[in-house]
Amino acid sequence: MTKFNAWNVFKNGLNGQTGWSRQWRDPEPQSSYNVIIIGGGLHGLATAYYLAKNHNVKKIAVLEKGWIGGGNAGRNTTIIRSNYMMPGSHEFYEHSLKLWENLSHELNYNVMFSQRAHVSLFHSPGAKDANARRYNTMRLHGTDGELWDLNTLKKNIPHLNYDDARFPIIGAAVQRRAGNARHDSAVWGYARAADSLGVDIIQNCEVTGITRKNGNIESLQTSRGVMKGNKIGFAVAGNTSLLWQMAELGNLPIESHKLQAFVTEAVKPFLDHVVVYGVGGAHFYISQSDKGSLVFGGDLDWYKSYAQRGNLPMVQDVAEAAMAILPSIGRLRLLRHWAGVMDMSMDGTFFICKTPISNLYLNAGWNYGGFKASPASGWYFADLIANEQPHKYIQHHHLKRFEQGINLDERGAGPDPKLHG
Length: 421
Prior knowledge:
Number of helices: 11
Strand content: 25-35%
Radius of gyration: 22 Å
């Protein structure tokens, strides 16, 4: 694999770009592995990479039923932040942000992380007080955060709807180190780095059956043959419930919902920040991509589905939320939209844990937070698989937390899928 550096870029500019090697191999599946990670998205690839790098695990495979990055990894709005308050959540997402900050150097691949600031608008004194509490807690833990009054907000983002707003704006909570990244680049970077450490990335390899024996998973039936793994990890986002039932484990406390995202035609530099708001039933977030398109989204489609496409009522809802805060974009053409499949847990936070099967490990329930969490998710999932014990930051993120009364409700909005599904 050719390393990216200034000399190689210059040299290949002179030889017609003929000196670059393939970014990762396309190996034939082996009959057995030490660890098999099912799911070739960011969480699965990051897990495989950190297993090999941090824990020196050999013979690792990542199985992907389609192509690398063809699932939720390429179907999101790429926002990265660590403005969390609850114990465990705060430390976890702050670690993830710190990993993002150095990820391009770590992987020797430009993931295009742009720390353009995450600006969360507030529209009432109550919202201002709640944000002040959250951001003061963040600062007590060493994470950056600040509050902007209306004049500061107008100076930084002058084209919001300040004068005739459906939801009057009175200020914003801001995390300057937050921002967004290029999802494809992050996927390719992790795939390339994992492959360089010997990980087999096996595409077009769908798991079709699971054989159990003596309390373990003995083998996986796939579209590319039978494989055995000493340890098996699930990192398949919205399809977790399907594999869980395939392993004869019953039901999980998650529901699969669709979350739509939208992309406009490209325009000149217009929005230098990630802007979000939620008030009066509206939920909206927007940023500008490196290509100039505005990328935005809102709430879930509230019915349960595995489809990767959305329906028109949510298109209307998100368009109305966009126009309420940024009416200047009303004449832009919408080029495309899609949906990712979200595994929504009953308290709005994730699972990284062992399971009732002794050699099966679970990574699921990411709700709205999957992309930003990818590096830390892989880091702590790899740590769990290698050491058989959860790190203290994820010690409560297990399947028994609901029966134990441990509700990790970071959003403070309750179990939305259960209420609406």
